[in-house]
């Protein structure tokens, strides 16, 4: 699989209505194939920034590019929302196909297989556990675009066992190729376990107060390394 795209974020200003700007002069790049955690307090604008990068929200001054193409014109990224957002009247397979008319049943089946749900293609959302619904949402993102994944708090409001399961799945999906991944979290632990770079936002307008490389590969991080990485993130 080809390496994911590089992102260039140059937001001169983003505000909603007459409120204080969320972002002013926010600039950073994301290298092709990197896995970046975006950490910051509630309300700072993480979800908004993810939507801007996805090209869903283009109402801002500045430019965001995906491999040099303005985000709104770039291929649709794989996007995982905070809640699974499955359509209740469609099966798992058809929930995946619904977001991309070009997605064939075979491609949807393969995406389900990648998240361990090969046998659940014909089940409806009410027949799936919360964890399975999250898996379908991840499969749907992968089916749309496996090379650029944007995930908004993918592990929020899951119990500990499911968080561990979803993190394992995340690593497997990322390890399958070299996608560019940007995920939002408010937990240093998510960043320490999954990312190879962490960007910490604080204040308003949101400012990058830390941009930390985590050089040891996620699968090689032992408890001591994780504790060290968590501390590096929590310091800010
Ligand atoms: N469509 C909108 N219209 C007006 N204000 C909005 C809109 N979307 C977001 N906001 C405001 O922008 C700010 C940032 O919201 P956003 O959801 O991006 O933050 P966040 O960092 O992702 O928060 P959380 O971690 O709680 O999800 C909030 O004050 C929110 O109320």
UniProtKB/TrEMBL annotation:
Belongs to the ABC transporter superfamily. It comes from Devosia psychrophila. The keyword S-adenosyl-L-methionine does not apply. Keywords: ATP-binding, Nucleotide-binding, Transport. It holds the Pfam family ABC_tran. Residues 7-228 form the ABC transporter domain. The keyword Nucleotide-binding applies. One of its GO terms (molecular function) is ATP hydrolysis activity. This is ABC transporter ATP-binding protein.
């Amino acid at each position: 699989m080809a390496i994911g795209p590089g992102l260039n974020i140059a937001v001169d200003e983003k505000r909603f209505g007459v409120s204080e700007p969320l972002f002013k002069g926010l600039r950073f790049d994301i290298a092709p194939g990197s896995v970046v955690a975006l950490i910051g307090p509630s309300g700072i604008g993480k979800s908004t920034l993810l939507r801007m990068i996805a090209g869903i929200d283009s109402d801002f001054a500045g430019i965001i590019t995906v491999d040099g193409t303005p985000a709104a014109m770039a291929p649709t990224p794989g996007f995982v929302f905070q809640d699974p957002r499955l359509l209740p009247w469609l099966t798992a397979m058809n929930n995946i196909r619904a977001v991309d008319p070009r997605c064939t049943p075979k491609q949807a089946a393969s995406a389900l297989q990648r998240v361990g749900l090969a046998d659940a293609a014909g089940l409806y959302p009410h027949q799936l556990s919360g964890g399975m619904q999250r898996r379908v949402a991840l499969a749907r993102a992968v089916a749309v675009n496996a090379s650029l994944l944007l995930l908004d708090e993918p592990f929020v409001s899951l119990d500990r066992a499911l968080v561990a399961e979803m993190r394992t799945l995340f690593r497997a999906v990322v390890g399958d190729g070299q996608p560019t991944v940007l995920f939002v979290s408010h937990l240093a632990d998510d960043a320490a376990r999954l990312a190879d770079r962490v960007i910490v936002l604080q204040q308003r307008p949101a400012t990058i107060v830390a941009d930390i490389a985590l050089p040891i590969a996620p699968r090689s991080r032992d408890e001591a390394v994780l504790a060290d990485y968590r501390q590096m993130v929590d310091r800010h």
